[in-house]
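[Solved] Which block belongs to which protein?

Original post:
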Amino acid sequence: MMIRNLVLLFCLSLLTACSVVQATSGPEMKDMSVLDRGTERYKVLAELDRPMLTDTDKDGRMYDIFSFRQGQHGSVKAGKAVVYGAAAIFTLGLSEVITSPLEGAAGKGAKIKARVLYDAEQRVDQVELLQDDRWVSVQNINDK
């Protein structure tokens, strides 16, 4: 009986790390201010990485299409990890039944696709949002 309880306790302790690890390992938050009009292209590339496509429009202006996951700020991820860890301790791991799938769905980041059109000096001129799966828009895109 004692060994069975120890094995059960050990198995529950393995579960407690799942949502905590998921909360801290999600994608980082991108600085969307690089999409403001007038930002130099190299700064956009430095923040959003390589575009899916680079081409020119019918007027000969260059554009990039980016696809990325918008993550959460580091302090938000740390806060969630603390809450999930505390919940796991107080519920002896049972909270993982809820927090692990929740973090698996919400913690992977929101997919964003954007078409960025540049002017002759390769500065952001216009941004067209092609996909935005964010539940709550923390940073606006090209709102200036």
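(Second protein starts here: sequence line, then its structure tokens.)
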Amino acid sequence: MHISLFLSNFALRNWKRVIYTPIFGIKKMVNSKNTKKVNIPYEDQRKVLEEWMDKKKPYLRQNFRIEDLRAALPLNRTYLSRLINNEYHCSFFHFVARYRVEEAKRLMATNPNLMLQEVAAQAGFASSTVFGRVFARETGMTPSAWRRTNK
């Protein structure tokens, strides 16, 4: 216990991380500078991100955060934010909102009897108020007006 605590404190003080060897349960100290990085060419990052968003649909979770994008791209928060800003010309919030609005449109088109609160929840919005505001900003009309025009 004391050795483990010492190793953890030692690792934090020396900018190193502790890795567990799965078979033996042994801890090894590995310098963070020597960790293996996966390099994905910048032009492919957008494609990988879009395919992951379309396939996994993580934006349907209300608590979806930019850190969750690391499942698709092994980049830190700063690089992920820069990728979205440069490639999509928007913030992470607006990037996710676009996917959620498209999902809401799909839900309203395929399930015309679904209440707007249910559409909002299923599309990943935290509330129907946020849903209405974001939907109007992205489409130029309210969800109910969109539903009426797209019957």
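Accepted answer:
You had them paired correctly. Confirming on the second one: The first helix runs from residue 2 to 13.
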